């Protein structure tokens, strides 16, 4: 090896080994706590500052300073964070999104604290702990990696650690002290952060912003290592270090020179971009914490105060006004986060990049340095910059289509860092770039007035995006992404819209900020500021426009004093606490879901005597009731849901207490038997007759406004249309030889079934049989490996969920999928606006049908009882005018009266031409409802037929299996 190659390799190993320590720390913390610690770099920076303080300022010996810093302070910070920040969050359920916001909060807090304590300037005199000799640093990194690997693999603590990572609750039940494991993980992770900081600080500029960011670029290797493998992390980081060094040997000429130089000094950023944007993502299951996006209504008085406060600086003069001009500009930038994060629920850590691009493009356009374009007046330059930056929103919008939570945070952070390093920090972009104010607005006061006008325009744009059909769809996507998809919302397009609009707003704010400062200053759009802005908007109410204005005033106002960092420290403290604020719709939904689960359990075992009673009821009464006769004489096409529901009522227990049959059985049992027989005769005629009618206006004499929040009744009775059917017959939904897999596991094998119109088809089977997977394949949320799904003759196997909804396939979920921040009526409106018919008038009909047209219609869905939420979900599905209705455990969490009412509605819908597929554990209900039952076991259909036959076979099998 030539001596140059050797030297460069050694230099690369030196950088790589410092970075390897970070990789090891990130992986260990993640493995022991499930938290990707965004604050890792900030801890490194604080430790470097403290070592410098001990040795340089106080004159301690290096060994003493290093001992205190690395063995006391660093692990201490980790244990404090575990005890007071992350343990309370894990007790609350360990929502990864909350821990993400909290770790960003810790980052911002430490950066702000360091700026407060040590100032914002860079220090060049940090003591050198290990000599520049790369072998020493490499030895430290390798020894540490080997030691940690050995502990994880061979010690009892390592086994406990792996158990906690796999399933914390199960590990605790198994007697493992998960808190101790987490505390050890945090202490070790912080120790490695401290070590990285003190090793790196002498060779880079030590300042509160630069070092943390440099360290966080290494997060790429933890992603490459899938947050698990230490050897992969260490080898990757060393390889990047060496490659980065070797690249410095190349000296191309022409346009490639600056690019290569940028790549060779930022190879870790390139790796971060590849890891975050191209590799399969990590941590995709979470959205933003609901408490962060919960909408708190803003009193009008608060707006009046805000307007007065924003007008106040017009009375200022001199430097005060110079500071004030930053507030409206920053407010516009923060409004972009209100759209993307607050309303759309998308984590975006890269808004600073769009703001910076807005300022840079404005400056280039105004200076006549933008390729291919003449010099433009400042305002025109600003407008064109906004237009040019808006489509760049796809840089983060595109990854957001397939990513959520941590993965999206990493992707947007990577884009922010990438733009900062490859665009803002390049000489060809920034050399001598000043930025004037528009003609006539040069003075601070005049410019402030112009900013207020632009802020008002931005507020109007934000308001328009947050209201109406688009606003409701955005809120639905934020509250429950798959629920929104199932309601027909085009989630991918909506995400792109949110990010593109967000980029445009950020560019406008960034350009205004640049004009305010009269220059393009890359430091003003540093990725660390992106984190600070995100944290500020989240803590002050992400879905609140007023919150954005307050955040802007706070950030500028608090940092205007002698020392910067106050605002960051304050925002950091609040962000650390954000996941722990009590209440909010999120909490209410969680409570509802927990209650639902509790209710579900007994129903799972409810089959038994009651099923047999229903399947072998006493003989029917000799003369059917007139209503029942009407039902069996169907095919004339002149009946609607109301009539059918009334028919159901006459057969149900709630039909007016008509007494007992001669055999002493409840009347319902006898009526059920008749229902099965009449169905057998009636349905074929209905097939030819057509589709179900859309739910019609209330019947004469209908009482509206009686819906209750208690959820004890399903008030379908007497509220349905008597309109004749107006549509052609609903097509059947069929599957052909369907096979579905999760990785290598085959969850469905060779499933062929038909869901015909006017029928209720049921799928039953034990847990894990594949029922929900079948549902996902039918609804478009899981792509089958083989086979087809057809709607009539049309192959819809590859259509996404929202497209299927728009064709008329609606679904409900096993776990409730309402939108908690929207009212009951808004929930249903989303279904009506986005579904097949897109008919707003369907809202009232659906609300009436499900008994939700009373005062409950105006209540937020959060906090309603399970029964009411099930009705909301069903009303939303029906409001879209579906032809096929897929119901996943619709009776879960309902009481007996609610189940009875639900059954009546479902029968009426089927009788009116709809095709229903029901997955249900409650075999009583299945026996009562279904025309055809498919029994699934281990991913296959093992029996099909009418319920009495199929369930009898199951009974017989149960009896055979039962011990004698
Ligand atoms: N996302 C997933 N990744 C891997 N395996 C999965 C996933 N979802 C389901 N499975 C597995 O696929 C099989 C079928 O699961 P599915 O949820 O479809 O069953 P199910 O009949 O609906 O059960 P349950 O009644 O409990 O809801 C199970 O073995 C389950 O563990």
UniProtKB/TrEMBL annotation:
It is a multi-pass membrane protein. It comes from Streptomyces coerulescens. Residues 626-636 have a biased composition (Low complexity). The chain crosses the membrane at residues 6-28, 35-52, 58-80, 100-119, 134-152, 183-203, 209-225, 230-247, 259-279, 300-317, 323-340, 352-373, 379-398, 405-425, 445-465, 496-520, 532-558, 565-583. GO terms for molecular function: ATP binding. This is ATP-binding cassette domain-containing protein. Residues 665-676, 683-692 have a biased composition (Basic and acidic residues). Keywords: ATP-binding, Cell membrane, Membrane, Nucleotide-binding, Transmembrane, Transmembrane helix, Transport. It is found in: Cell membrane. Residues 591-733 are annotated as: Disordered. The lineage of its organism: Bacteria, Bacillati, Actinomycetota, Actinomycetes, Kitasatosporales. InterPro entries: AAA+_ATPase, ABC_AA/LPS_Transport, ABC_transp_permease, ABC_transporter-like_ATP-bd, P-loop_NTPase. Its main location: membrane. Residues 733-963 form the ABC transporter domain. Signal peptide: none annotated.
